[in-house]
Design goal:
This protein has about 110 residues and is of the alpha+beta class. Helix content is about 35%, strand content about 45%. The protein has a 4-stranded mixed β-sheet. It is elongated and about 50 Å long. The two termini are about 20 Å apart.
Amino acid sequence: MIVSTTPSLEGYKITAYLGIVSGETIIGANVFKDFFASITDIVGGRAGAYERVLREAKATAMSEMEMQARAFGATAIVGIDLDYETIRDGMLMVTAAGTAVKIEKIF
């Protein structure tokens, strides 16, 4: 399935708009990750543990959105928007939303 943040896909024609699809995930970062991230913040560098958690959360949200689009009979998702929101202490919500469409290749 082709997924894109753009409203159209070069080389393809959108033949049907099937509706909005979304995927969400809420994750918590544990105490150890918080501790090591604070050390990284003090000495500089990247917080690798948080980056891994963010990538995992994004992948989960995207996967759920794609499953929903497949259930609609979609062959692509366009106009994808990713949102990251902190909720409560140490909780992060990642949402992926887009428009499920059917496409055909333009010759």
